Every structure is written in structure tokens, then in C-alpha cells.
Prior knowledge:
Pfam families: LptD_N. The chain has 182 residues and is mostly beta strands. The protein has a single domain, classed as Sandwich (lipopolysaccharide transport protein A fold), CATH 2.60.450. The protein has no helices and 13 strands. The chain has strands at 29-32, 45-47, 50-54, 59-70, 73-85, 97-104, 107-111, 114-118, 120-124, 129-141, 144-154, 159-163, 171-173. A six-stranded antiparallel beta barrel has the order 5-6-9-10-8-7. The protein is elongated. It starts with 28 loop residues before the first strand and ends in a 9-residue tail after the last strand. 31% of the residues are buried.
Amino acid sequence: MTLRRFLTPMTVPAALAACLMAGNALAQSSTRMEGMALSNDKPIQIESDQLEIQDTEKKAYFTGNVRVVQGATTMRAGKMTVVYLGEGSSVTSGNTQIDKIFLNDTVHLTSGQQNATADQGEFVMASQTFVLTGKQVVLSDGPNVFRGCKLTVLMKTGEAKLTPCPNTRVQILLDPKSKPQQ
């Protein structure tokens, strides 16, 4: 089974726009996630209870009910930290280069009928790698469910790898009714 466009990522236009946005069940599960490519053509709406910008640390802290929406993709978390680069740059200048984004306090990603939950997440801009981790990472695409403890997605290629929790195996539940009709 191929996950079509699972968790369409958040893009990285100006400023904080980077904030978004069948496997081998013996040890690890690898698959391609079609549609996992960055795009810079849709606006991003970010909401949180509080925003603190620390230009000296080159960080922006979003806390409390963080919600990031771009197109059909929504990300929710308790906290989001954006780390940016550049001498003398400020996140409010509109041209800040984002280095990393950290998501904490239960992460929920939704795109259409596809969902993922994890304890935390990290997006690294340089490698365009998105990693979800936790006691249990759950991905669902309609009735199909994938469980492990770490999901790594290479955004440039759409390649995804689901790693099991310690002393367990990746768990996959596939519904035969979800197979495309030919």
C-alpha cells in the first residue's frame, strides 16, 4: 500500500512560514509517501496562546494551543519552538532563514483523511527531514493504521521510515476495502 499524500508538510515562505509545515513489520517499515514535497505557494496561519521572540537566542516560542494551518493540512501542538539563522536577523523582519522547528506536548497532524499523532516532532530545514517520535506514533490513512515509535520522512523524496518501539515490532492494520478499484 502506498500512503498517498500523508501529512502534506507545512512550507517555508517568509518569516515563520516554515512552521508549517505495506511495510516490513519485522523490525522497521519503509515506504514512499507521495505528495510529501515542500511548496511555497500557500499562506500559513499560526495561532497560539502566546508568542515570545528571543532575537538574541534566534528563537521564537509559541506556547499554548498552537495551531498551524496551510491549505488542507493542520498541525496542533502544546508548544512550538522555531530556531532561525542569520547574523542580525529577526523573525519579525520577514526574511528569516529557519533552521529547525521543534514541536512538543502532543503533536497532531491532519491532512484530509490522513492523521498522525506523536509526543514530539522535529523539522530540520537543511536536510528537509521531518521526525515524529513518542511512546507511540500512530499514522492513519482512512481505515489503515500504522504504529511505531519513530516516523522519519525525507521531504524531498517522500521516503518514509517507521521504526518500532523498543522490544516490539511495527504494527500495521490494512483494510482490504481501502485498496483502489481497478
